[in-house]
Amino acid sequence: MKTVLTNKNISIRTRRRALECYIEPILMYGCEAWTISKQTQKKLEATEMWFLRRMLRISWTAKKTNDTVLEEAHTTRLLISKIRKRQATFFGHVMRREKLENLVTTGMLEGKRSRGKQREKLIEGLANWLKAGKSLEAIEATKDRKKWRTMIANAVKQGT
Question: How many CA atoms lie within 13 A of 30 on its CB side?
Answer without folding.
Answer: 2
